[in-house]
Amino acid sequence: MKKLLLIFALSAVTVGSAQTTQRLTASKMNEYGLIYNLPLTAVDVTVEAQRTVKTPGEFRLYSKKYLNIDPIMEASEEWSVKSVQLSPRGIANQKEGYLVQLKSGSVTFMMLDNNGCPLSVNDENVSAPIAPARPAAIAMQPSILQTPVAAQAVTQEMLQATSTAKKAQLAAAKIYELRQSRNDIISGNADQMPSDGAAMKIALENLEKQEAALTAMFTGTTQTGTTVRTYTTIPDSAATSKVVARISVTEGPVDADDLSGMPIYLNIDIDSKGELPKNEKGEPKKYPKGALAYCVPGQATFTAVLKGNSLASLSAEVAQYDIVFGLDPALFTDKKAPAYVIFDPATGAIRELGTK
Predict the structure, then answer these.
(1) Residue 3 domain-assigned?
(2) Which helix (H) or strand (E) segment is 8 a member of?
């Protein structure tokens, strides 16, 4: 019977998969039965990684002599983890489907998300969960030596010089000349002053860019960019730690099975497990006949770890550490005061229960 229920539930999800939510109404056509899946709680691990590319300058051997600056001596590329974000999300437990049988003539309805998991019963004012905001990838920009200003900064004498040492000497002289020109404009001592404030701003910016380009020929350049990848893992009761992703020094974020990278672990500490609700006497309640099943979730703490360092932590309810209990279906077909219920889409737990 459980297999048959699961097939029906999957069919319902497929029909509404393009929608944000689906509405299932108890009717004669479905014999007043509503079929659904309770969720499993997945954890999305979003890794924001930064790529850093360092390129030595043409005149690096003369940087200390002319500018007294330590330059980049060798080309390098490396990746590092800039941030990690952990967020829980519900996905359908495809191994089990549930059916709640309602009284004939009922107009009870259930709102489902795209996974076929319940969002509410007898309440339309719900929407599928919104994914948390995640960092945007930042494209690596060209270095100043890859822009037109670098060519503008090179003088004719530098082009005609036959040795790197001579080119470096001329480049350093040009840097000091540009600095002097900038100071003259600022102090008002330039032979040809800009005509107005806007022209002065343009002139100063151009001088600064040329100086930066020439300086980069000595010191080298550093470029950075970021990429963002999200990995999904489903915790289970046996695992206390698992590799969810890796960070490669040459490729950045890679899959967990790509051994070229250092592992990013997700440590799992189960703080508590779901317990059966209790009655006024403190005794566990009995499962109602034909009940509307829901989860009483457990609690866990998740920690993302790289090389022994904690990157992010999350404390969340988890459906996998749950007890499945149920609500009497008669609550939802009462003609005078029908009940409504709102569920947590990540766990299937009750978030709000009341009457219309």
Answers:
(1) no
(2) helix 2-15
| pLDDT at res. 297 | 95
Domain hosting 203: range is 56-76+140-223
Terminal Cα distance for the chain, rounded: 33
Q: Which residues lie below 8 Å from residue 76, measured CB to CB, with a gap of 6+?
A: 52, 53, 54
134 within some domain? no
Decide: 315 and 299 in contact? Cβ < 8 Å. Answer: yes
Q: Which residues pair with 109 in a beta bridge?
A: 25
Model pLDDT, residue 96: 79
Please indicate, yes or no, if residue 205 is contained in any of the structural domains.
yes
Q: What's the total number of domains in the chain?
A: 1
Q: Which amino acid is at 83?
A: S
Measured between alpha carbons, how far is 118 from 288 in angstroms, rounded to an integer? 19
Residues of the chain with pLDDT under 70: 1-19
Q: What is the pLDDT of residues 249-286, one digit of tens each?
A: 889 999 999 999 999 999 999 999 999 988 888 889 89
Is residue 257 a part of any domain in this protein? no
Give the amino acid at 16.
G
List Cα–Cα distances, 227 to 18, 135, 187, 206, 253, in angstroms: 28, 9, 45, 32, 8
pLDDT at 95: 84
User: Measured between alpha carbons, how far is 211 from 186 in angstroms, rounded to an integer?
Assistant: 16
